[in-house]
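Lab channel / #folding
Pinned by the channel admin:
"Please post every new chain as: sequence first, then the structure tokens as a reply. Keep commentary short and put observations after the output so the thread stays searchable."

First post following the new format, from NK:
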Amino acid sequence: MGTRSTVRSTENLHDLALHFYALKDVVRLEMLTVLAAREYTVNDLAEVLNKSQPLISWHLRRLKAAGIVKIRRSGREVYCSLDRAVLVEQHQVLLDLIGEA
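Reply from TO:
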């Protein structure tokens, strides 16, 4: 193994840690459960989860930073959805790491 693969592995591990750290909160896991069905506006997501909009927005920022959710704007509305490709990719990195791939 050369330096390049070591650097790539370090980057993968950093991304993996960020990904799973973002999933450590129960509210965020509840949000993923709801977003698994479809895209929601932030306000609708707050209503479905019976949480305040500022709380949902705060958690969404963490999920977005980890690449777990995608955010799009349409006028004044903010829509959020799961980034399934990132979820699959990070879980594959974990499986590779533990030798399950």
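NK: The beta strands are 40-41, 69-74, 77-82.
TO: also worth noting, Residues 30 and 45 are 10 Å apart (CA to CA).
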